[in-house]
Amino acid sequence: MSYQVPDGVELREPPVPGSESVLTPAALAFVAALARTFGQARQELLRRRADRLREVREGKGLDLRAGPAGEWKVASPPSDLVDRRVEITGPTDPKMIINALNSGAQVFMADFEDANAPTWANMVQGQAHLRQAVRRTLSYVAPDGRVYRLGSQPAVLSVRPRGWHLDEPGVWVDGRPVSASLFDFGLFAFHNARELLQRGSGPYFYLPKLEGAAEARLWNEVFEWSEQRLGLPSRSIRATVLIEHVLAALEMEGILYELRDRITGLNLGRWDYIFSFIKTFAHRPDRVLPDRALLTVPSTPFLRTASQLLVHVCHRRGAHAIGGMSAYIPRKDDPDANERALAQVRADKEREAGEGYDGAWVAHPGLVGVVREVFERAFPGPNQLERMSPAPERPEELLAIPDGPVTEAGLAGDIDVALRYLAAWLSGRGAVAIHHLMEDTATAEIARSQLWQWVRHRDFGALYRSARAEQLQRLRAEAGSSPAASGADGGDGGPLRLDEAAQLLDRLVLDPEFVEFLTIPGLAYLRGTHAGIAQERGRG
Ligand SMILES: CC(=O)SCCNC(=O)CCNC(=O)[C@H](O)C(C)(C)COP(=O)(O)OP(=O)(O)OC[C@H]1O[C@@H](n2cnc3c(N)ncnc32)[C@H](O)[C@@H]1OP(=O)(O)O
Ligand SMILES: O=CC(=O)O
Ligand SMILES: [Mg+2]
Q1: One of 83, 93, 416, 440 is an active-site residue; which one?
Q2: pLDDT tens digits along 463-474
Q3: Confidence class of residue 205 from pLDDT cuts 50, 70 and 90?
Q4: Do the Cβ atoms of 127 and 106 come closer than 8 Å?
Q5: Is there a contact between 446 and 438 (Cβ–Cβ < 8 Å)?
Q6: Cα distance between residue 273 and residue 218, in whole Å
Q7: Predicted ipTM beyond 0.95
Q8: How many CA atoms, within 13 angstroms, populate the side-chain half-sphere of residue 128?
């Protein structure tokens, strides 16, 4: 198959299965029009992000900013998003999509962000699978012969495009790579928005990694423009925003306001939130966080305060408050350990339901029942939007540094997780179970950014080098004896790329400049050739 592309559009990746249904000339023309209309505004926002970060790192103070005063509320949710007590998330391969849609959760968030390794094949085939899922034609036959089909009462579909920071190096428009957000959103909306509306649902999106209200405004403009261009009813594109950056937390109400005609809720993305906290203050020796395992929501004042503030702001303005992701997943190998994992998830969701959340995410179908039970017990349903939660008593704790040690065991743990995760990611898998915990890009970002900070401010450079070398040896031996034994085999993507993972990790940890997202240099490794490397150069 060869591509037919509109004028000014260049495809820099080869056709893959699914290209024929996804990368049609009309769909590419829509993505190109999005890029031409909003590309510059996005670049401007990214420049503003960089300026703001520089100012904060230089010591500029931060304040909580209220949204516009008055009694405004966000638009009421569509009927199929009124009850969101359990939302499952996961990557876009056919088995995951089918299992998630059949899981009994109210919503399935199909993920092109944290749970996705953005290989070209994953991006295009993921869209092709979602296109089939929307039309209810998706099926899958596993290598062992098991057949997967969609059930009669699937979860409501929502899609998370990649964040504003990333380019999609496979598609260039007028000599520049397109924004990954516009590529993912544009293709999904072009192929599915009308079909979803005809089927009684709608085009619903989860928006990741926003850093403030201006970025929400740009998304709103993209949605408004797309509705007109695609001939959709006005305000039919709906969104939920992840609050997963400390600067976005300061502007939660403004984010709701900018998207008030379309937004249905906020979700506290605790893992990226922790990463953002480390990154924002990375250069400050007085703002070093303790070991990753100690950073739980109840015990960490900045997370606890953000969590309370989110429910307060959401309910005041009529939006759902959706809880985030516990990293514990069920275990088949050990009933006692399984019970302990479920107890961790239950406790986390009981806290959220008690704080006023209307529902929460789960990482695994085996957790749907546990979380549903917690929210059903907490309130009769479908949500607790009417319950007003108080504002946090000590909002200054949004920026407080938690107590706790930085230990050599913490360093070894971060190296282990980062190496295993990066190796799996480079092999095409964006979400993996490592030591029986869910790890994805956001949790790996925490590990590698802590290492950067500890090397700088705790003099852990030599220790990092020796521990990293030892761990690489150990993982090579594990992978040699059994690919699955490393906790993250290469899966469909082929063998684990441990040596490249180590190279990438060294760069992320040892570069004097903090790398803003691991996925930016990571993409050069992931795509292998000119495409990823071009993005890095283009950014320079
Ligand atoms: C920080 C954040 O952004 S959180 C959101 C992003 N992260 C995610 O979405 C993670 C989603 N979770 C996952 O990807 C997976 O649960 C993993 C990788 C952590 C573990 O997956 P596995 O190792 O396959 O788990 P396990 O072997 O227990 O799976 C049992 C079954 O459940 C299925 N399953 C597991 N997780 C999911 C999921 N999230 N959605 C759909 N099906 C799932 C598996 O495919 C498997 O199906 P099968 O029995 O038909 O073969
Ligand atoms: O996207 C969710 C997060 O916790 O990060
Ligand atoms: Mg995230």
Answers
A1: 440
A2: 999 999 999 999
A3: very high
A4: no
A5: no
A6: 21
A7: yes
A8: 19
Domain 9-397 has CATH 3.40.50.720: no
For domain 407-539, the CATH superfamily is: Malate synthase, domain III (1.20.1220.12)
Q: Residue type for 402, please? A: P
Cβ(242) – ligand 2 distance below 6 Å = yes
Per DSSP, the residues of 352-391 read HHHHT-SEEEESSGGGHHHHHHHHHHH-SSS--TTPPPPP
The ranges assigned to domains in the chain are 9-397, 407-539
pLDDT of 163 reads 98
pLDDT in tens, 253-298: 999 999 999 999 999 999 999 999 999 999 999 999 999 999 999 9
**What is the token pair recorded at 207?**
């928006």
Q: What's the one-letter identity of residue 485?
A: A
Place of tokens 């964006």: 430
Catalytic annotation present for 440: yes
Given the structure tokens 């089927």, which residue do they identify?
199
Residue 41 in tokens: 């505004």
The closest ligand to the CA of 112 turns out to be 1
Amino acid letter at 492? Answer: D
- Among the residue ranges 38-42, 144-148, 398-402, 536-540, the one predicted with the least confidence is 536-540
Which of 268, 273, 439 should be mutated for ligand 2, with most atoms under 8 A from CB?
273
Ligand 1 center–CA 137 separation, angstroms: 22
